[in-house]
Design brief:
Number of helices: 6
Shape: elongated
Mean pLDDT: 78
Oligomer: single chain
Number of strands: 9
Length: about 230
């Protein structure tokens, strides 16, 4: 299963269900009275060997333990064109393509969680402002101005990424402490993260946030436990 390191509560564990045909019926296995759909991970069907399909799946669907499932059925027979402008991304396998849709969901779902380290840094900035207010008021004003400029820059970038993940203007306005209308008016003129492709296409999801060369998240892949 897939775990996003920014999801500290581990509320969004992802997996890919395997389908043998376009009828979207996944092979299942039974544990007691419970019936489970088989996942597909690293070239293997999940679940016990008993009644395991002999053939590989033809399609994959990304799902999450929170109850979300992708509305996209990844066709494993479709190959991305070798002359695609991003050759590294064009070599994505079917499981990686399915994981891309789960990643978009997980990033959006965990978008409001503020890491503890960020709260500590915010507290340090507030402490500096409070310290400078009385004894070095001009330095306090300069620091406050610099923080506002930095915040404005990153607010714009955050809005672009939020919209790429299909987060609503309503939620964006709530997070910014303002209204949907105000945020839309302020940022509607910004260019999208891509001009030519749907940003939620799996070609883009694994890499579109890596503008500084380092992804802001890590995906850990773990094996599902075999049922008893």
């Amino acid at each position: 299963m897939w775990h996003l390191n920014t999801d500290e509560r581990r509320a969004h564990l992802g997996a890919a269900l395997g389908y043998l045909g376009e009828d979207e019926t996944a092979p299942t296995y039974r544990v007691g009275r419970a019936l489970f759909e088989r996942t597909w991970q690293s070239g293997k069907w999940g679940g016990p060997d008993e009644s395991c399909p002999e053939q590989d799946p033809g399609y994959l669907r990304a799902v999450c333990m929170c109850g979300w499932s992708s509305d996209v059925l990844v066709d494993l027979s479709v190959e991305l064109p070798p002359d695609h402008e991003r050759p590294a991304a064009s070599r994505l396998h079917g499981q990686d393509r399915a994981r891309a849709y789960w990643l978009a969901h997980a990033l959006a779902a965990t978008s409001t969680a503020l890491p503890g380290g960020a709260e500590d840094m915010l507290g340090q900035s507030e402490q500096w402002l409070r310290t400078l207010t009385g004894r070095q008021p001009l330095a306090c004003l300069s620091l406050a101005r610099a923080l506002r400029e930095i915040a404005d820059i990153h607010e714009g970038q955050a809005v672009r990424h939020a919209r790429a993940l299909q987060i609503s203007w309503e939620d964006i306005g709530t997070a910014a402490g303002t209204t949907r209308q105000q945020m839309h008016r302020k940022h509607r003129g910004q260019p999208p993260l891509t001009d030519e492709h749907d940003i939620l296409h799996p070609i883009h999801i694994p890499s579109y946030q890596h503008e500084d060369g380092h992804p802001p998240y890590t995906i850990t892949e773990t094996r599902e436990r075999e049922p008893p």
